[in-house]
């Protein structure tokens, strides 16, 4: 990789539109390194990278290939790390910023899929569809009234984080006749209202909502944010849903809130460990809808995310400021590092 602009990614599966888009650019080359079996070859490819398109799947990508300070030190020409999803758990953003490396993500690329998944969980849990399905497979003699659920209409959903996904969840919930309240420290009250929710504090949201749905990023400010105290503030009989990131809610606290009967159910798409171990207590509960961090994993979403990732990389390599810049404060240092790398 001696000439041109070089993009590197791992050999974990990626929708082919990514490679096809980059292949149309005559001055951009793409290197694909193996995540297992040949570390020497992988480092040789990575060493020449200008852009590292890193998998956002923290439990699929070996830690050696996370975008850390150690990896940055071995990639002197690197000036951008591009996450393959909206999240960037595999990227040490402060280390990148300190080195003058821009970090970009693909926020919004799978928002429709995640919002649909959220509403599917909400409706299934409210109507006791899971309990009905499971009881029909293993027993007879129960009545329809034994598994009677509730309509969504007229109930309140609290959206924690009203960005790309949260805004779509609010829109879908309102279409079902639900009231929507929202909280987001990065969005002012007028904008929260414009996005379809009544602005409230997190504490008010927990106290007022029949459904609490998380759509916020995982960072130092949100880690274990939904703990025993937060679950205790929720209405008795409320339902908790997270399609955000594992670690924002305390899994052990959620187990306790469900076992005590305080919560009526939960929809969990994201886990501390993905997939969770088979003996995880949440997997044994009939009132918990469990999925494998696949709310945003649809054919449409995977294609869309790969397409916008490739387009953003092409724009960035062409000199433009990327639209999904995670660390905007890096920009002056980034321009200097880029100029050195391409000299």
What features would you highlight for this structure?
alpha/beta; 15% strand; single chain; 36% helix; 7-stranded parallel β-sheet; 343 residues; elongated; 5-stranded parallel β-sheet; 12 strands
- Tally of DSSP β-strands: 12
Structural class: alpha/beta
N-to-C series of helices and strands: EHEHEHEHEHHEHEHEHEHEHEEHH
Oligomer: single chain
Helix content estimate: 25-40%
Total of DSSP H or I helical runs spanning 4+ residues: 13
Radius of gyration: 22 Å
Terminal CA distance reads 14 Å
List low-confidence stretches.
none
Mean pLDDT: 96
What global shape is seen? Answer: elongated
Largest sheet: 7 strands, parallel
Domain D-isomer specific 2-hydroxyacid dehydrogenase NAD-binding: 119-295
Protein name: Hydroxyacid dehydrogenase
Organism: Ramlibacter monticola
Keywords: Amino-acid biosynthesis, NAD, Oxidoreductase
């Amino acid at each position: 990789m001696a000439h041109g602009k070089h993009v590197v990614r791992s050999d974990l599966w990626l929708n082919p539109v990514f490679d096809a888009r980059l292949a149309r650019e005559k001055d951009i080359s793409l290197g694909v390194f193996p995540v297992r079996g040949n570390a020497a070859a992988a480092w040789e490819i990575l060493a020449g990278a200008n852009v590292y398109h890193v998998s956002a799947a923290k439990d699929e990508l070996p830690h050696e290939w996370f975008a850390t300070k150690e990896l940055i030190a071995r990639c002197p020409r690197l000036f951008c790390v591009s996450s393959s999803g909206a999240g960037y758990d595999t990227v040490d953003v402060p280390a990148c910023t300190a080195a003058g490396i821009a970090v970009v993500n693909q926020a919004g690329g799978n928002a429709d899929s995640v919002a649909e998944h959220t509403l599917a969980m909400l409706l299934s849990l409210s109507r006791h569809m899971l309990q009905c399905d499971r009881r029909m497979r293993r027993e007879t003699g129960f009545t329809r009234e034994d598994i009677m659920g509730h309509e969504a209409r007229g109930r309140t959903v609290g959206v924690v984080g009203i960005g790309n996904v949260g805004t779509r969840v609010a829109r879908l919930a309102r279409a079902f006749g639900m009231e929507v309240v929202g909280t987001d420290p990065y969005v002012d009250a007028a904008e929260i209202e414009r996005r379809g929710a009544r602005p409230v504090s997190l504490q008010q949201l927990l106290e007022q909502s029949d459904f609490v749905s998380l759509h916020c990023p995982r960072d130092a400010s949100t880690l274990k944010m939904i703990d025993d105290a937060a679950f205790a503030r929720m209405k008795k009989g409320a339902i908790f849903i997270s399609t955000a990131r594992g670690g924002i809610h305390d899994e052990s606290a959620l187990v306790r809130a469900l076992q005590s009967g305080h919560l009526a159910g939960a929809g969990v798409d994201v886990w501390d460990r993905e997939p969770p171990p088979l003996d995880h207590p949440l997997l044994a509960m009939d009132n918990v809808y469990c999925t494998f961090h696949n709310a945003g994993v649809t054919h449409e979403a995977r294609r869309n995310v790969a397409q916008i990732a490739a387009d953003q990389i092409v724009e960035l390599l062409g000199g433009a400021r990327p639209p999904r810049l995670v660390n905007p404060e890096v920009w002056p240092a980034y321009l200097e590092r880029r100029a050195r790398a391409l000299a």
